[in-house]
Specification:
heterodimer; A: mainly alpha; 2 strands; B: mainly alpha; three-stranded mixed beta sheet; 20 helices
Amino acid sequence: MTEHFPALLVILPLLAAVLIPFSPAAVKRSAWHISFASAAASLALAARLAWETFALGKVSYWFGGWAPPWGIEYSIDPLGALLLLLTAFVTCAALSYSRAAAPAELAAERLPYFYSCMLLFTSGLTGIIITGDIFNLYVFIEIASLAGYALIAAGRRREALVASYNYLILGTIAATFILLGIGYLYMAAGTLNMADLRERLPQVYHTKTVLTGFAFLVVGLSIKTALFPLHIWLPDAYTHAPSPVSALLAATGTKVGIYAMIRVIFTVFKPEFNPSTVPMTVILAGLACAGIIYGALMALAQTNIKRLLAYSSVSQIGYIILGAAISNQTAMTGSLLHIINHALMKASLFMCAGIILMSTGAEKTGDLKGLGRRMPLTMAAFTAAACSLAGLPLTAGFISKWHLALGAVEAGLWLVVPVILAGSLLTAVYFWKIIEPAYFSPAGERRPVRPEAPAGMLAPAVLLAALGVALGLAAHFPALGAGRAAALLLGKP
Amino acid sequence: MTEIITFKPLFAVLASLAAGIMVSLSGGRPALREAWTFAGAAVKFAVIASMLPAVMTGAQLLTPGLTLFPGMELRFRVDALGLIFAGMASFLWILTSVYSVGYVRKLGEEKQTRFFACFALTLSAAAGLAFAANLFTAFIFYELITLATWPLVAHKETKEALSGGRIYLVYLLGTSVTFMLAAILISYNAAGTLDFRPGGIFGAMGPGHKVLLGAAFALFIAGTAKAAIMPFHSWLPAAMVAPTPVSALLHAVAVVKAGVFLILKVVLHVFGTDLLSELGFGLPLAWIAAFTILAASVMALRQDNLKLRLAYSTVSQLSYVVLGAALLSHSSIKGAIFHMAAHAFAKITLFFSAGAIYALERKTKVSELAGIGRRMPLTMTAFSICALSMIGTPPLAGFISKWYIGLGAVEAGQPVFLAVIGASALLNAAYFLPIIYQAFWGGGETAAVESPEKGPLAMLLVIPLLLTAGITLGLFFFPGLLLELAELAAKG
């Protein structure tokens, strides 16, 4: 049984997602329970698989028993295990948050479909992480994206539809690019298995076909990860989506996009593939730096809390890509650590924003006056998560940014170091806009309907934020895990 | 050098942290709340004082370390320099607590619980910095000092207080996150360690990497805005919106001394004086410090608000410590360390006096002080003693520090800085003596007015400042212990 866990991890949420909409009304009423049970089971499976992966080094599963270059292979290495665990965990948190949050933002008859889409989304993400076949990767990207469009469109305002439509257009362009890229690689190497591609591609690295394929893949995935300047779909989508969706998307959606990008650059291609005509790493690092500063400045200019958080994501994604582009051991470790940190913290922040919206109706940074005293737990979670994103010492964010900056110093990229530090400072400044009025202004006229949100919403937000502090204090474990995953990616033993 | 493993430094840090927690839990009962503050202050000072004998023998007290991840370790190590800083801050915390109780009650300040809790937290962070065994620990507590003092600066929650608080954060966090963190990164990459070591951590690689080390040194200095070296000094006048006990203990002792303390640490234990003089980095810093000493004195001359005048005076006096450190000679460093304490006792008295004048007479401007010495003789006598110590006249503590710094300038072959010290003494006299003259002999009124220095609350304000003024006087006649510690610290 245990050897089928990789397949089960994808199939379980997929089955539940399909089951819910086609079941009788009585079952539909317990759609949340079914979804949560499935997500919890996925988390258990992911934990077990992660443990196995770190013990064995790599877990491989042949679909239908067909051996790899011909059949579809699922393969999990430490990086994949890390992401699987992260996705499953955040999905569980987002679902438990949804139980109280979703009915507040969605009509009752839509709820089963909403949960179904959430499961579909996770299923797609899990597939992206787990698959060892590049065409299969594309299929899962499409599954996750389609579910994502529907989830964003579920927002309570009409703007959500426009945001979803814009994302749909850009997402489809991205998907087309990715498919084209895969086509070119298949043309050149004659295989779709990633490990196989890695072996065969070096002989044809110099050809224009491979170069074109690589470019299509990287650009397509850059749209999915919202790398500056291809981020334009993201702020609207995160702002208008229901808050559990914003939390889930920000935590896992873009992260898995980055994972796919890292897979293509470091697993399908070898780190030494660096086309002389297009200095890939320089371009990526440049865009990442620009994104860090641009996202932070835009966040600074926002008054809508969710939009501020969305631009903050653009900035933080820049950090993650930057580490991958510098691609030495230290910076890559930092990048992976920042994936974990940003996923947990941004999920918590969006959850807090949702709680504030639900309890007080406040959407703007100026509406939060005196909230620190009225909703102490929510604002404490928000503050802790913000501190971790800003990279305050003793939080997870400090560990990731320290590795990133040290990696840049090691690589002699002196111009990148100030960008990393200034970005951190700007992060602190734009969160300050929210925290200062919350704690240091006399109460505004908005009174919360009730003092704190229901425990079901509050618990995941607080738990995620607390993890940010805990991971900063017990940094040994994540740093070790990420370090090992990074070493494997960079082809070191 | 003997090393003793002990948890005492940790207890010193935790004592005030625990006090802060207990203070915030007992907000509804002011008497109990204040009792926690005094208990915390007393325990903390006792723990720190108990480490003195071991440190005097040249030993170092070391806690076990907590490794966050390889290279990042939280650890405390007590040496003479740290003991001076922590001892001074925790001793003055006791007096400031007495004074604060009188001050906030006299003025009926709001949110007293937050006030006392943040105070305790700041002292905890200051001890953490004083005892930090490596740059990482120092950085954490350095930042914590900023964060813990910010609510105190913004205490009044008026527009002015909040904007002062913002300037405070931008200057202090901005410089430390961008410059100091960069300097720490470079040092770690170059030396492979962040530990403070006597003689420096760069060892053999030194002279060959002049540009890299120069950048790191410059970033360290620019990152330590708490030392208020120009052009990073503007936060200090802006922080004067805080209630006076905050300006007294934090912006004359704990916060600003944290800055010069860290500069001394960087000079002595990160680079080492030998490497710095070999590379020639001392002189540029000495000139910047000299400029700050003179320019800030000139600015102080032009302030009519008493607290602002004292703030600019602090900017100027802090740079004496920096100058002493930058001259890199044995005597000048000894003088710099002595000045850390001498200035602390004198400046806290001046701020206490300014606060007493405000609380008892509601006067904030220098131009309003005519005749105040006749109504508040105790306060203004203490003020005068400490103002004279600032100028550097014997028989007061300020004379000793300036003597050693001047001696150090000659030792370093830079007698030109004697002229700076002399000019600064004249400027100090120019902005302090008129206050003293006006206070005692100015103003026409002769009618006997009842002194406001009466009653239990007023006594809470006056007794601490008499004590600190007494210490300023006493340090001249009995400088032995402090000089011996400074000697130990200067030796590295």
